[in-house]
Amino acid sequence: MKFENWKKHKLGDVVSLNAKSLNPSQYSEILFDYFSLPAFDFNKQSELVLGNAIMSNKYLVPDNSILFSKLNPRIPRVWKINSHKSVHKKICSTEFLPLQVNEKLSTLDFIFYVLQTNSLLAEIKGKATGTSGSHQRIRPDDLLETEIFLPSLELQKKISAILSTLDDKIELNKQINKTQDKISKTIFKEWFVDFNFPTGTGKMKETEIGKIPVGWKVETFENVFDADRGLSYKGAGLTQSYATPMHNLNSVLEGGGYKTIGIKYYNGDYKDKHIVNAGELIIANTEQGHKYLLIGFPAIVPNFYGDTGIFSHHIYRMRAKKNCYLTADFMYHLLLQQQVREQVIGFANGTTVNMLKIEGLQKPKFAMPPKELADKFSAIAKTNRLQAEQNIEENKTLSSLRDFLLPKLMKGEVRIKN
Predict the structure, then answer these.
(1) Dihedral sign, Cα of residue 148, residue 153, residue 159, residue 165
(2) What is the pLDDT of residues 172-219, one digit of tens each?
(3) What integer is the mean pLDDT of 28-57?
(4) Could you give the residue ranges of the DSSP H alpha helices within 132-233?
(5) What is the three-class DSSP state of 106?
(6) CA 127 to CA 323: how far, in whole Å?
(7) Nearest to 61, CA basis, from 42, 25, 88, 31
(8) Domains of the chain, with CATH numbers?
């Protein structure tokens, strides 16, 4: 370690634990900005909730705080709370420790990055008490007794600026992706659900699924789409990489979309019918419980893993038939619409595990638009989707660079000039 001219401090000298407990239900009409462990785990933002929606005690979070998760296996998890991002009172799960920084010694950003260095996190995690696994916790005193090294405030700010620039670009790319996805969803609803589309005459006709524009027709999935179940694979065929990418149940996000951290690799046998191409549609057909958070939701296979891969038996692949002009992007947004979704999940059943029958992707009906309008939407949605894929790839590169620089900057191994 370098640490030339860096001073040793106990973390408790640099931060204070500000954990004021309150029961939000006592403030039933107040809107809180709520930071929860599930939101953190799924890389979501905090959620706005009324006090009466949260019945158990939470910690009141001061502005400009750092939330450090004390619960295994979520140790280590660090969340930075900036005051400018919300005007609402902030609360967090009691499994977080809210920390405030002594600004005479350090900065919010610098301590945020200090608490993410692997060596420090390993030391903190080694102090966890309790039985193994999810019951282990970090005691506040053990966290505050941990020793850290700090350079001058000026150097801290320079180091933080480098890392923050990378994080800000990563966050910007995420926000761009959310905006583009929202644009595609808004256009689909406007054109194909509310029927306010370009060249529309406003003339409607009654059908078995409600009023649809004159010139459109009611179509059934099985007439225009093919649905197939994936490979029932053997665990022995799973490998870390350098094999065929296998898209699986963990590849679909709750609510729809592709989940990049869920990919598996398989070196066993499979048939041509188990192949799925980049840009094709997959649908989750299995879910624990009956909350319908995942089952029936779609995702489009990205280009990250090459032109082809395979898909597991917990997934359906849906393709347009040869005589159908609808694209994967159109089908993806179609499956997100409430009227269609209700038809799909109506074919799900099971006790502990909910399973979607193949009929769920054969029997639903929808309003078939003219080719010109469907093509126009598909071009917009595909452009937005491919741009999002590029942003995700860029974020991987930026994250790798950030993770490479973080420990070196925090050990003083990289010199920073003015």
Answers:
(1) positive
(2) 999 999 999 999 999 999 999 999 999 899 999 999 999 999 999 999
(3) 81
(4) 140-144, 153-192, 221-224
(5) coil
(6) 63
(7) 88
(8) 7-150 (3.90.220.20), 152-198+370-418 (1.10.287), 217-368 (3.90.220.20)
